[in-house]
Amino acid sequence: MGCTSFSSITQLFRTGTLKLKPTDGGERVCVVHVSSAHPWTDNRIHYRECVSLQKTGYDVHLIAIESAVEAPKTAVHVVALPRLPRLKRVVFGSVRAVRHGLKTRASIFHLHDPELVWAVPLLRLLGKKVIFDAHEDLPIQVLSKEYLAPWSRTLMKAAAYAAVGLMKMSNHVIAATETIAGRFPEDRVSVVHNYPPLRAVESAATPVAEREKLLVYVGAMGATRGAAQMVDTLNSPSFPADWRLELAGSMAPALADELGAAPGWSRVNFHGPVPPDEARNIILSARVGLVVLQGSRAYRESLPTKMFEYFAAGVPVIASDFPLWRSIIERYECGLLVNENSPVEIADAVAAYAANPVLLEQHSRNARKAATDVFNWTQEVPTLEAVYQRVLSA
After folding, report:
1. The pTM is what?
2. What phi, psi does 21 have (nearest 5°)?
3. Percent of the chain at pLDDT above 70?
4. The CATH number fitting domain 6-195+378-393, selected from 2.160.20.10, 3.30.390.50, 3.40.50.2000, 3.40.50.800
5. 238 Cβ contact partners less than 8 Å away, ≥ 6 residues apart
């Protein structure tokens, strides 16, 4: 389904019928979010940004990839495209996604993937307003890939900086962190953190010390995300004998085979990919959350959503001792910091919580307060809305 053309919207502005309110004048401003890499169930894209804009009054369309999990439908108009192999996705998938976006006749295109940067100048030439959502710091990502050959690293680094240059041609850039925002002109970038929305069920949750003796990790699993270290933790001598680990998220078959053969795997409950709300319910059942991403520069300067989902559920965290994460965890006194490469240190931290329910409850209360006061999606929505208002009025 298409929506009101940009020329119609412009006329409404000129006549004063539409005064930067997406529902005034009887016609709604049409926007389309486009991703050739993310599933339509992506939390940031669909359930935070798109839903928030829809509630504000925009007519929101989402072009994204089919999902492996069932998830709630919303008022957002979704086109779920079949998944392609990686090379085909980069070469053909981005063209396919933009073509579907153009069918909506949206006046604002909100792009979400580096492989879509080529479309920025094209869409501007077509008279579209373009917002680019920079989820990650591309140049830092390339530098973090230590397995790349020197010539390949040089080539990819050049491509990353070229992509950043194309992003700068957008009307505005939305960055997920302050570090990413630093790559763009101050007057055309805004930080919209990927903090989770608060849920009523979390405010009435069982006190953390009364929950099952569970560790939890939600999210994609891989070598750089500490999957092996988490499983090896369960076999460490100091790990409490009556605790277990809940894992929820995607995992490559080869890694699943490797971890399945580890001694600690018998104490793991592996859920696989689950819908967003189910993942948060799994967190809500646990006492302690793990976020032991490995020490690449990309991770050191990231703000992992799972950490703030733990906070929202009143779950203290055991986290990698990165300076940015230390500044948050020490300020709000809501977790313990460890060497992310050391299963022994991780196990010792779990043991510390198991032996001290007073500390566990204190860190739980602090985590929940940090979420309700600071680290929640409601705090980010005004910035998102302001970006759209600014782009429309330009």
Report:
1. 0.89
2. -115, 120
3. 91
4. 3.40.50.2000
5. 344, 347, 348, 350, 351
